[in-house]
Design brief:
The protein is an alpha/beta fold. It contains 7 helices and 10 strands. The chain is globular and about 45 Å long.
Length: 267
């Protein structure tokens, strides 16, 4: 019997190429399990910003739902395109982009007349000024070594006045163990340690990469890309949500923020 190697978790430097390769491979390998485990929570046509369950239908971070009709919207890191289906139901014209071929196959499985694009967020295959809005619910931004390059690409494809809204793991969570129970409530690392979190195989090759930025870093990234930050949302954990998702849980969620959502505008 061949024993499957469990990736080793570590913190080490990693660049754009290795991060992109690791992300594509991890999501292609784990898309089936991810959609099986979280598909019911995400729904087929809901727009959920993160594990807390904040719904765009209630939050209105992209603007009033009644104002989305006729707008061209780019969803980055779309996964199975659940958010894009919700946007289409409001009358918008979404395009769902993801690095993972297998995630987009799940988008095809669920269905809907949504254009799907397999591409890297750091090199968006669209002309300048193609979209009115861009959004990303935990897509791309936490997984790239150079987030400013991604945001400059987003700014390029947005029209003047366009809005860019994205959610990421809240930076404070990197100081705590990635555990949903009491063991995840004690600070275990420096909040200011920007060394990427890496899971690597027996040959030292990265199979999963997530990049830590402080809250200030994220704000400076937004500004450096030419955006104006208009809001920073830290969703509170609602009483109705009893699920655990990785290190997210009701226990931790009532004490520390797990998600940060940045609302930005292109002048």
């Amino acid at each position: 019997m061949i024993q499957e190697y469990e990736p080793e978790a570590t913190r080490r430097a990693t660049g754009d190429t290795e991060s992109s390769r690791a992300s594509r491979g991890w999501w292609d390998r784990n898309a089936d399990e991810y959609q099986t485990e979280h598909g019911a929570f995400l729904g087929d046509d809901r727009f959920v910003w993160g594990p807390e369950g904040l719904d765009e239908a209630e939050a209105g971070l992209l603007g009033p739902a009644s104002g989305l009709a006729g707008l061209d919207v780019l969803e980055i890191g779309a996964g199975a395109a659940q958010c894009s289906r919700w946007l289409a139901a409001q009358g918008a014209r979404p395009v769902a982009l993801d690095l993972s071929h297998r995630q987009l196959q799940h988008a095809l499985r669920i269905g809907g007349d949504i254009p799907l694009v397999e591409a890297d967020a750091g090199a968006l295959p669209f002309a300048d000024g193609s979209f009115d809005l861009a959004c990303s619910a935990y897509g791309a931004v936490p997984f790239v070594a150079d987030p400013v390059r991604v945001m400059r690409e987003v700014r390029r494809v947005l029209r003047p006045g366009g809005r860019w809204v994205f959610s990421v793991t809240h930076p404070i969570r990197w100081a705590f163990p990635d555990e949903p129970g009491p063991e995840g409530l004690s600070v275990a690392a420096s909040y200011f340690d920007r060394t990427p979190y890496v899971e690597q195989d027996e040959h030292g090759r990265a199979v999963y990469v997530e990049h830590h930025r402080t809250l200030g870093d994220r704000v400076r990234d937004v500004v450096a890309a030419g955006f104006r930050l208009t809001d920073l949302v830290e969703p509170e954990w609602p009483d109705w949500n009893t699920q655990e998702w990785g290190g997210w849980s009701p226990l931790r969620g009532h004490l520390i923020p797990g998600t940060a959502i940045f609302v930005c505008e292109r002048d």
